Amino acid sequence: MSRPNCPKCHYPLKACLCESIEQMHVSTELIILQDPSEVGHAKNSVRLLSLVIPETQVIVGELPEDFLKLRQYLNISSKPIYLVYPSDKSRNVEEVNLEGEVILLLLDGTWRKAYKLLQLNPWLLDYPSLHLDLESASNYTIRKASRSDSLSTLEASAMMLQAIEPKVNVTPLTKALRALVDQRLNAMPAEVRKRYQ
């Protein structure tokens, strides 16, 4: 029998995060291309991101046909579009003068899955790419990552927004993530929790 979920935040009732959700609105358009394996993941930060920023668009898929409607939308958009993905050709968001409203495309999944999404969808490379100059490790300690520059999609979004819209207070995002992490850590047996601290 499945555990009952909160009708508002959709997390299990015992793990309801409603008290930690403070909605915010931004000018930047966030579009998440999500690997299908991330959808049901209990530690999925995109669900949290969508609760805090309701305008966030999440498109689940892997193959180009999964993103046909998105591509049509992007083709008629008048806003500048950027892919958030570090590469030899990407530019540090802090060094790019982004004026007006922009669209950010983020890939949600492990590094391996994000790379696979990119390989399966070479059309994404038509857009200029941006990266973050990371000075500190991720606060998303409940998921292990193979790279030191790994961030949750929520963290990457928050940092991008901070760089693009300096007047926006991203505290609602970081507060929600902290609540999720604390909750997951507190639910772990003490010996397991030590591995994540």
UniProtKB/TrEMBL annotation:
User: What InterPro entries does the annotation carry?
Assistant: DTW, DTWD2/TAPT
What residue stretches are annotated with the DTW domain? Answer: 2-189
Q: What is this enzyme's EC?
A: 2.5.1.25
Q: Which Pfam families match?
A: DTW
Q: Which UniProt keyword terms apply here? A: S-adenosyl-L-methionine, Transferase, tRNA processing
Give the protein family.
Belongs to the TDD superfamily. DTWD2 family.
Protein known as: tRNA-uridine aminocarboxypropyltransferase
Q: Which organism is it from?
A: Shewanella eurypsychrophilus
